[in-house]
């Protein structure tokens, strides 16, 4: 289909309609997002103490950044978080979506329950989970002690803090991706399954031969957005890891560092340089995904 | 064959229940905490059940904050953001997926770009924009950053790409122009995607904290999330009140979801048959 | 369907038009002779008191209306920064010594020197010099001192009674303090004598000053952390956790809100600023079991103190009204209202007693007594950066990973680098 179009010359009517249809979004994006992004790029070459007052600094921020072990560690933290969170989020939300698509009694009740974490206010989520993780009296360690294991101080141990944050990230995202995938599953015509059943294909086979390929456009979307969101992790770290927490250096993400430099330390130039590093990482990964999608996404 | 079906039913139910427990546990704690006194909530080891459920926490929160106003502001913000972003995203997404025009890939690149940038960097420039427009401390200020949606454009593009071509071609043969094809044929087919986007737009708006806090300063222009943030002092937090406030904030969103999810699941069940 | 689109577009544009209209209304208010000024603060605990002041100011000045607006601390500074860039700052707002230099040196705050000199209602002489200095630059005054805070020793009377130790008072030295802390600690029950939090203001700075140590050099251009007296003090502080084991570990303190230890009877003593009082007054457990005393004495007496200021935006459109309000906020009358509503010790000299009178449950006089020997919170041109570095490095000391000397050296180098 795409190739056919490419060979065809542009059609006047389509050009016109294309321009009309994208106009509002394009305008909005340019004013609200692209312009600020360019400003941030410029800011990364400047020194600023806030209030929009800047001095040109050339590559100074970037030079500082290369030699800053905090930045290197934040890059590692961000990638580790993404590597832990994304596979679980994708698999679990797909499983949940498939389950939610079954004809089971009370399924809409389940859907609501699974969606609960998505609706919760972030501050409440952080507070509740801090309590669950608490090494002295948290439920998680209590459960461990029941089976004779000793729990960890999840949020203050530098080895477990990212994992602990990732678990909350997974918990609060599964319901949301589930709804997306569910809406994708809903688009699959029922008769596909009926004829597969007549052919004697089992549930597992149906999943891999019908469900997965047909939901792949939505799945692709879920993957791209989940990875981007994971690379931008900030809120959870900000609210669950205190400034005095010794695990902070091993947990803080690039966005956290950007926030700290830009809004707490008021070094907006340096903060902007840090966010540029993140942008390059996200861009590389996203472009890679767009390239690879042709191999597995079924349009 | 029958016993196998039964087995898989049991398995599905078990999985669903297990998942539900994990999802719900923290909320049970929220509800329990909302009924405790401040002293009970920080007791160590913690008490599971409140000695006597303190409805007073809800009363205090309702007295402290103009919740009705918050509901109205939040609802208005959500309404306009949903209308704007669903409509504009659907238009742009359809163009991206189905029309052939120069600059299409560049536009899609911009859409992806927007999603790649952490939202924190938009805050100050967008504030300055709103300020220049003289809209500080108003409902439009709350709406503005969410009026178009890159996320929505991308999501719906995937939906349109996944739809079969036949219907579109049939519509063309019937003499429909692009707009009519989009509106009468394609849009209804992407209904579940539109509903999903509406739910998420509502949700993002509902959870957005930083923006409403910065752009709207007076209490009567605040949203649920920014109003709740005002419950938390700088130094300590009254957990029971915070939890009570959160519960008061959550229920309308949950209701919206319950209503919509039924709609989009049922609606599609019939349209699926038509294909 | 088309109708729906047209309709929704209309509605959207409608909202914008309405929005513009609303905003104009505000500015037009000026022509009608009534001005509205905004007063931005960050502490919900003080909202009530601030509103009361605004009300009584409005009574005196019927043509001015004051809107008190609270933004939580975390967003307060982001908002102020954006507003300053866009020249849409609130007319009057709270200033903190952490940020004051940046705001003063960038010309964001209005110079109040003249107003203060000519004012009949107030004068800088009514306020402690150290506090007004926090908001002065090159001989100009940029904010009116608002309040003062000191750090006090909170203790759990019940736990003291059980261990038959007499309550802390002004005779206490650090030796007595340590001995008591040891006796009060009961590891099995998970009860500690003290909470040695990673916090300079409500923690180790007090010990440093009591030990005659230094944090900044006199000109505030370099750090003085490697001062042997300073190193000794922070070593003692870390020892409370790692050697004497009278405090929860650094991890435990980072995991729970440190204040929750004293609020749940798991810690017998803790240092808390006077700004916590509003919170403690509301807490039943605290009311029943705890009280406050002056800090124990080291080589000398010391308690860290700080004060907020009320500032006016240089770009305010309501200069006269804002200045009038600032003058009022600096008056004895306003400070007495602040004293009555209780959240912070008013800065106006002589009004602190009124503040003490308004708290029944606790011996808050201790906070005021300490003003005689209180040491001003360390500040510099880059206070926040300096403190962030300090907190990060002290974490290594308190968790027992590094020695006090080592940490002090790192802090010294990095802070000097920042202040260069």
Automatic annotation (TrEMBL), chain A:
Pfam families: BPD_transp_1 (PF00528). Residues 75-289 form the ABC transmembrane type-1 domain. The keyword NAD does not apply. Its main location: membrane. It comes from the Bacteria. It is a multi-pass membrane protein. It is found in: Cell membrane. InterPro entries: ABC_transporter_permease (IPR051393), MetI-like (IPR000515), MetI-like_sf (IPR035906). Keywords: Cell membrane, Membrane, Sugar transport, Transmembrane, Transmembrane helix, Transport. The keyword Glycoprotein does not apply. Gene3D superfamilies: MetI-like. The chain crosses the membrane at residues 15-34, 79-100, 112-133, 162-185, 270-290. Belongs to the binding-protein-dependent transport system permease family. This is Multiple sugar transport system permease. It comes from Candidatus Enterococcus lemimoniae.
From TrEMBL, chain B:
Pfam families: BPD_transp_1 (PF00528). Residues 71-260 form the ABC transmembrane type-1 domain. It comes from the Bacteria. InterPro entries: MetI-like, MetI-like_sf. The chain crosses the membrane at residues 12-32, 70-94, 106-129, 135-156, 239-260. CDD domains: TM_PBP2. It is a multi-pass membrane protein. Keywords: Cell membrane, Membrane, Sugar transport, Transmembrane, Transmembrane helix, Transport. PROSITE patterns: ABC_TM1, PROKAR_LIPOPROTEIN. Signal peptide: none annotated. Its main location: membrane. It is found in: Cell membrane. Belongs to the binding-protein-dependent transport system permease family. This is Multiple sugar transport system permease.
From TrEMBL, chain C:
SUPFAM superfamilies: Periplasmic binding protein-like II. Keywords: Sugar transport, Transport. The keyword Transport applies. It holds the Pfam family SBP_bac_1. InterPro entries: Bact_solute-bd_prot1, SBP. It comes from the Bacteria. This is Multiple sugar transport system substrate-binding protein.
């Amino acid at each position: 289909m795409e190739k056919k179009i490419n060979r065809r010359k542009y059609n006047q009517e389509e050009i016109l309609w294309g321009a009309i249809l994208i106009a509002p979004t394009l305008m909005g994006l340019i004013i609200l997002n692209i312009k600020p992004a360019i400003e941030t790029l410029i800011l990364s070459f400047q020194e600023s103490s806030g209030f929009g007052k800047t001095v040109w600094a050339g590559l100074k921020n970037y030079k500082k950044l290369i030699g800053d072990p905090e930045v290197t560690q934040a890059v590692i933290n961000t990638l580790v978080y993404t590597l832990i969170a994304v596979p679980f989020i994708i698999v679990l939300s797909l499983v949940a979506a498939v389950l939610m698509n079954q004809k089971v009694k009370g399924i809409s009740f389940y859907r609501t329950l699974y969606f609960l974490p998505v609706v919760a206010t972030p501050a409440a989520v952080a507070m509740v989970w801090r309590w669950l993780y608490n090494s002295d009296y948290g439920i998680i360690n209590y459960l461990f002690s029941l089976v004779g294991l000793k729990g960890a101080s999840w949020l203050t141990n530098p080895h477990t803090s990212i994992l602990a944050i990732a678990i909350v990230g997974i918990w609060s995202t599964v319901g949301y991706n589930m709804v997306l995938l569910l809406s994708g599953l809903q688009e699959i015509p029922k008769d596909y399954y009926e004829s597969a059943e007549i052919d004697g294909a089992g549930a597992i086979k149906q999943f891999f031969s019908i469900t997965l390929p047909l939901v792949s456009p939505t799945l692709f979307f879920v993957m791209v957005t989940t990875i981007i969101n994971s690379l931008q992790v900030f809120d959870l770290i900000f609210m669950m890891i205190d400034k005095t927490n010794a695990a902070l250096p091993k947990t803080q993400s690039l966005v956290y560092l950007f926030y700290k430099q830009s809004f707490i330390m008021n070094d907006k130039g340096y903060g902007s340089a840090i966010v540029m590093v993140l942008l390059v990482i996200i861009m590389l990964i996203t472009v890679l995904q767009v390239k690879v999608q042709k191999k597995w996404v079924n349009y | 064959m029958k016993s196998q079906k039964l087995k898989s039913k049991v398995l599905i139910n078990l999985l669903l229940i297990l998942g539900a427990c994990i999802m719900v546990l923290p909320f049970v704690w929220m509800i329990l905490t909302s009924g405790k006194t401040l002293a009970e909530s920080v007791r160590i080891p913690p008490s599971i059940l409140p000695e006597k459920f303190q409805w007073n926490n809800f009363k205090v929160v309702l007295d402290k904050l103009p919740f009705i106003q918050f509901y109205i502001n939040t609802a208005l913000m959500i309404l306009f953001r949903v209308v704007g972003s669903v409509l504009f995203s659907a238009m742009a997404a359809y163009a991206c997926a189905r029309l052939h025009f120069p600059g299409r890939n560049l536009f899609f690149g911009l859409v992806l770009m927007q999603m790649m940038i952490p939202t924190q960097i938009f805050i100050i420039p967008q504030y300055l924009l709103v300020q220049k427009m003289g809209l500080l401390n108003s409902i439009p200020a709350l709406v503005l950053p969410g009026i178009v949606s890159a996320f929505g454009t991308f999501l719906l593009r995937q939906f349109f790409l996944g739809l079969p071509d036949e219907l579109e071609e049939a519509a063309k043969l019937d003499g429909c122009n692009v707009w009519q094809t989009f509106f009468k044929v394609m849009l209804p087919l992407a209904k579940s995607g539109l509903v999903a986007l509406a739910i998420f737009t509502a949700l993002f708006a509902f959870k957005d904290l930083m923006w409403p806090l910065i752009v709207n300063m007076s209490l009567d222009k605040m949203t649920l999330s920014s109003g709740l943030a005002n419950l938390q002092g700088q130094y300590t937090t009254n957990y029971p009140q915070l939890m009570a406030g959160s519960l008061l904030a959550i229920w309308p969103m949950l209701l919206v979801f319950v209503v919509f999810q039924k709609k989009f699941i049922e609606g599609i069940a019939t349209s699926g048959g038509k294909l | 369907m088309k109708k729906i689109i047209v309709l929704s577009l209309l509605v959207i544009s409608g909202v914008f038009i309405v929005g513009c209209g609303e905003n104009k209304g505000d500015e037009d208010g000026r022509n009608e002779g009534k001005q509205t000024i905004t007063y931005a603060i960050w502490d919900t605990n003080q909202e009530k008191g601030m509103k009361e002041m605004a009300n009584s100011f409005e009574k005196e000045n019927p043509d001015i209306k004051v809107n008190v607006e609270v933004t939580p601390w975390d967003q307060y500074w982001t908002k102020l920064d954006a507003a300053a860039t866009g020249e849409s700052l609130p007319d009057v707002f709270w200033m903190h010594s952490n940020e004051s230099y940046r705001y003063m040196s960038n010309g964001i705050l209005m110079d109040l020197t003249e107003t203060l000199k000519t004012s009949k209602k107030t004068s800088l002489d009514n306020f402690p010099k150290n506090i007004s200095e926090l908001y002065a630059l090159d001989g100009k005054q940029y904010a009116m001192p608002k309040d003062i805070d000191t750090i006090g020793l909170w203790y759990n009377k019940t736990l003291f009674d059980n261990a038959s130790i007499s309550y802390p008072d002004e005779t206490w030295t650090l030796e007595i303090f340590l001995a008591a802390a040891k006796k009060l600690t009961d590891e099995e029950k998970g009860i500690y004598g003290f909470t040695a939090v990673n916090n300079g203001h409500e923690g180790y700075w007090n010990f440093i000053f009591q030990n005659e140590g230094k944090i900044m050099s006199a000109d505030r251009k370099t750090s003085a952390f490697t001062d042997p007296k300073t190193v000794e003090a922070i070593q003692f502080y870390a020892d409370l956790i790692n050697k004497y084991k009278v405090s929860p570990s650094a991890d435990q303190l980072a995991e729970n809100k440190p204040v929750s230890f004293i609020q749940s009877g798991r810690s017998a003593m803790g240092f808390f600023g006077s700004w916590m009082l509003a919170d403690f007054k509301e807490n039943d457990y605290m009311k029943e079991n705890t009280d406050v005393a002056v800090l124990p004495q080291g080589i000398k007496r010391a308690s860290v103190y700080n004060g907020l200021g009320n500032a006016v935006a240089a770009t305010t459109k309501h200069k006269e009204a804002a200045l009038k309000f600032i003058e009022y906020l600096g008056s004895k009358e306003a400070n007495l209202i602040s004293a009555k509503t209780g959240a912070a010790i008013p800065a106006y000299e002589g009004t602190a007693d009124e503040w003490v009178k308004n708290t029944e449950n606790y011996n808050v006089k201790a906070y005021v007594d300490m003003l005689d020997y209180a040491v001003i919170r360390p500040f510099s041109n880059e206070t926040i950066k300096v403190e962030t570095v300090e907190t990060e490095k002290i974490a290594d000391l308190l968790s027992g990973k590094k020695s006090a000397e080592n940490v002090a050296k790192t802090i010294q180098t990095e802070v000097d680098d920042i202040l260069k």
